[in-house]
Write a structure and sequence with these properties.
Number of strands: 25
Number of helices: 28
Distance between the termini: 56 Å
Radius of gyration: 34 Å
Helix content: 40-55%
Strand content: 15-25%
Structural class: alpha+beta
Strand order of the largest sheet: 14-19-20-18-21-17-13-22-12-23
Largest sheet: 10 strands, mixed
């Protein structure tokens, strides 16, 4: 221990004398830990404000006898007529194993209103016994029967406080007046039995079963598969985490659910891939952080080279030299991580106490302490490479002031980075080509973070080659440029980490931004291939179809029209989707063949078992099922499985040639059904059926109608003519209104419409064909922020390495060099480091974005199954201009401020 303390004494002395030199590294360690702690503590405190443990077993009643998969995602119940006076609560209590009890817990998305103000919020109902006994909030009191405790955000929107009255509408029971007992943190309102439902009279089929509701079962032991089967016999479906963690063997399952059980047993590969993918994403952030703080340690080691050489001359071993250097990382990590932990946890706890007095703060110590440990470990790792170099330095050269990082020429190890980068690029390209099909997309998606991490590491490893190349390229350049290139190699512990950090920063940031822009451009192009680009639709929120008439929605439509100017309007009618909790109406095409997914082959197969990947007939039959997912565009908010319209609806579409448009218009003038291209045309029988629960569908009407497959390939639904709807007995439901303005809509107009509708209406939404997610100039702002970070890192590196550079420039002054040579050399060096890092990062980012983009997939007949994203990768020239041109010039200007003499023009005359 004494030798360790002696070895680290120079490090501790240097940190004590020059604390500001490591301040940047301390802040870079403290900020992520603080932000992570703030977000985690605040989120956990909101989620666990009531300190109620989530049960591991939940049951729902369906009636008769049930069979289910172990995770209850697939199930079937026979249903039965209950006798008079039947109580679901008593029936469950009788079927439970000995020692187990059940409590009703409801959670329902509801509307809460106070006068004209309305808000949607999840409302939970607990039993009075489930409320915490020792909780005494200062923001009101816990609710009793007929009372409700609102989230702070909902109470603020409604303008209510404790003692006020609000109206609650859960969808099943409307118009109940409740008194506000207080406000609470979190995102859900709280009630107690029997405000929403009385447990004694509760039925799972009342509609609450469609939400996060049910009978919460607790007991002294783990729930077993035998216990699940016993409740199945009583007509209950059960989802138990105990059973999911320890599933039964496949032979104990019903035959139709054995594949599900096998999946639970055999999904280890998928689970591990997900874990590896998540770990790779975390490691990308860790590597980026290490690269950003590493210049601080490397420059500190370079500055202390003479001290380490003296230590070696006095008998210090290479291990002790390494310990001395690693102490920089250890102490910086300890100080930074502890500072971040104290500020994050302490500051959040204080703010929570101010905002939510009386409510307990929850600190998840395990992940918080783990983040602290990772931060300390990361700081030590960042100092590892400088420690190795310092331990290998020659004593005689170090005592004379030479640094151990001088690049004298090419070394074989420098090729590791470029070679690895080439291998990663080729491997990624081949993986995209081999695994780019639809069935392998999940595997490729899980592998992409790993490939991106390897790409990042290889890119950072190319920094020595780039710095070495700067010295080679500038050999015959003017003096300032030649000196700058040589200094980059002479002080590689400064230059290489700076270039690696800036390359990594630009690479990760631009890869994320370019991928996002590519996805947006891809989506916009697909939408515009179906609908007119300028179209927008004002409609009720999803699930509210039929609750608004044209007159009800007219004010919202006029608000939108006032923002876009003159516009053609199309009122939309159709058959809405239903809800799984209640019977609903569907339009069914009798005899339509669909290709079904086969688990053994992992792909869709034709009804006769032929594989569409190898059989052209099966490929043609399965084309509609295998084709790219339909796009909704301007109809994204329309709750419809089929539109009912005449020829006027065709003005909404852009992806139709004149022949198909004329044929569609002619068909809609009579009884007909239009479907997307690729479906089967001809006469077909359609049925209108009532579907819901476990009962067989009930046919309400049927008709044989001509089918015309002329709509765009990516249109998601059907269009039924009014005459056909009348023949089927369908009553059209108003779904919304589409506006077709004369010009396109920019980001500002779209946002203005959305904000205006949100402020002045309720239950209304707007959808666009081409939606602009970012404001104009977004890329310039992002590039500007990145450029500013580049300038800060370069300036920090120049400032920390100023003593070494000052000695060299003093020697040049003694030889009679021009007084401005020092500042010009610093300016050129800063520009070179910023330029080579940003340009390389830009090229790598666009390459990685292209490699990660999906490819266009075709079937054996050449039909396009999926339009890939690779063709939509675009170079943002504003970003290129800011990062590749403006930033290096700005860095040169900043670099010119270093080593500048006062009155340089007169310096030589004095």
């Amino acid at each position: 221990m004494s030798s360790l303390l002696a070895a680290t004494r120079p490090t501790r002395r240097d940190m004590a004398r020059h604390p500001l030199r490591l301040l940047a590294a301390i802040l870079l360690v403290a900020l992520p830990v603080a932000l992570f702690s703030v977000n985690l503590v605040w989120a956990w405190s909101n989620q666990s404000a009531l300190r109620i443990a989530e049960p591991r077993t939940v049951a729902w009643y369906s009636g008769g006898q049930c069979i289910q998969s172990p995770d209850a995602t697939q199930a079937h119940c026979s249903g039965a007529e209950e006798p008079p006076g039947f109580s679901e609560q008593e029936h469950l209590a009788a079927a439970l194993p000995e020692g187990f009890t059940a409590q009703l817990r409801l959670n329902r998305l509801s509307e809460v209103s106070a006068g004209p103000a309305v808000d949607s919020v999840h409302v939970r109902q607990l039993s009075a016994d489930a409320l915490p006994r020792n909780l005494d909030p200062e923001t009101g009191s816990l609710p009793g029967p007929g009372e409700i405790m609102l989230p702070k955000s909902t109470a603020a929107r409604l303008g209510v406080d404790a003692g006020d009255e609000v109206e609650l509408d859960t969808g099943e029971r409307a118009g109940r007046s409740l008194q506000v007992s207080g406000v609470m943190p979190g995102y859900a309102a709280l009630t107690v039995e029997p405000t929403l439902a009385d447990p004694a009279a509760y039925r799972s089929v009342d509609g609450f079963g469609a939400s996060d509701s049910g009978w919460m079962i607790t007991g002294p032991d783990a729930f077993t598969w035998e216990d699940v089967l016993a409740l199945n016999e009583a007509g209950f479906l059960v989802q138990s985490q105990d059973v999911i963690d320890d599933p039964p063997p496949a032979e104990e399952l019903a035959p139709e659910y054995r594949s599900t059980g096998t999946f639970i047993h055999d999904n280890a590969l998928s689970t591990w891939l997900s874990v590896i993918s998540a770990a790779a994403i975390v490691l990308i952030g860790v590597v980026l952080l290490l690269l950003l703080i590493s210049p601080v340690f490397t420059i500190a080691v370079s500055r202390q080279s003479r001290v380490f050489a003296l230590m070696s001359s006095q008998g210090a071993t290479p291990r002790q030299i390494r310990w001395a250097v690693l102490a920089y990382g250890l102490f910086t990590g300890l100080i930074g991580a502890t500072l971040g932990l104290v500020l994050g946890v302490g500051g959040t706890s204080l703010w929570w106490a101010v905002q939510n007095p009386g409510w307990p703060v929850t600190v998840p110590w395990l992940p918080v302490v783990a983040a602290w440990g990772f931060a300390v470990l990361g700081s030590v790792l960042a100092a590892f490479l400088p420690a190795v170099l310092a331990a290998r330095a020659a004593i005689s050269a170090g005592i004379q002031g030479a640094t151990p990082d001088r690049m004298r020429g090419w070394r074989p190890w420098m090729a590791v980075g470029p070679v690895a980068l080439v291998i990663i690029v080729l491997g990624w390209f081949l993986a995209g080509s081999v695994l780019g099909g639809q069935s392998d997309r999940r595997l490729l998606h899980d592998l992409e973070p790993v490939l991106l991490l390897l790409f990042l590491l290889s890119l950072a490893a190319t920094a020595p080659v780039l710095v070495w190349g700067l010295g080679r390229i500038t050999r015959s350049a003017p003096l300032a440029l030649r000196l700058a290139g040589r200094n980059a190699g002479r002080q590689s512990l400064r230059s290489v980490p700076v270039v690696a950090a800036l390359m990594a920063l630009v690479f990760i940031a631009l890869t994320v931004i370019t991928t996002e822009q590519t996805n947006q451009t891809h989506t916009q192009a697909l939408n515009a291939s179906v609908y007119r680009p300028e179209a927008l639709t004002v409609s009720p929120t999803f699930g509210s179809a039929g609750q608004f008439s044209e007159e009800d929605l007219a004010p919202a439509v006029e608000l939108a029209r006032s923002k876009v100017g003159p516009a053609e309007s199309i009122d939309l009618y159709g058959l809405p989707f239903g809800r799984s909790s209640v019977p609903w109406i569907e339009l069914h095409r009798v005899g339509q063949q669909h290709c079904m997914y086969d688990e053994e082959s992992g792909t869709l197969l034709a009804p006769d078992g032929s594989d569409p990947r190898t059989d052209s007939g099966a490929a043609a039959l399965c084309l509609p099922d295998r084709r790219h997912a339909p796009v909704s565009g301007a109809l994204g908010g329309v709750d419809a499985q089929a539109l009912i319209a005449g020829p006027e609806i065709l003005s909404l579409f852009s992806g139709m040639d004149e022949g198909k448009r004329a044929a569609a218009a002619e068909a809609l003038r009579g009884p007909a059904v239009l479907m997307r291209t690729g479906e089967t045309s001809g006469e077909a029988e359609f049925q209108v059926r009532e579907v819901g629960g476990e009962q067989e569908p009930v046919v309400l009407g049927s008709a044989t109608l001509p089918v015309h497959a002329v709509l765009p390939e990516l249109f998601p639904g059907r269009i039924v003519s009014p005459q056909a709807a009348q023949a089927l007995g369908i009553e059209p439901v108003y779904l919304g209104t589409t506006l077709l303005p004369s010009g396109g809509l920019d980001h500002a107009t779209q946002r203005d419409i959305r904000e205006t509708l949100a402020e002045e209406t309720y239950g209304v939404q707007v959808s666009y064909t081409v939606e602009h997610w970012s404001f104009p100039g977004y890329s310039v702002v992002v590039a500007g922020v990145l450029g500013l970070i580049v300038l800060v890192v370069v300036a920090l590196a120049l400032a920390l390495s100023a003593p070494q550079s000052r000695r060299q420039f003093a020697l040049l002054d003694a030889l009679g060099a021009d007084p401005s040579l020092a500042s010009r050399t610093s300016a050129v060096l800063a520009g070179l480091l910023a330029g080579v890092a940003t340009v390389t990062g830009l090229v790598a980012a666009y390459l990685a974005s292209w490699l990660g983009a999906t490819r266009t997939v075709t079937d054996i007949n050449g039909a396009v199954l999926e339009v890939g994203e690779a063709g939509f990768v675009r170079v943002d020239w504003w970003i290129v201009l800011v990062l590749a041109v403006v930033t290096p010039l700005a860095a040169a200007a900043v670099g010119g401020l270093f080593h500048r003499r006062r009155g340089e023009p007169e310096y030589r005359e004095t």
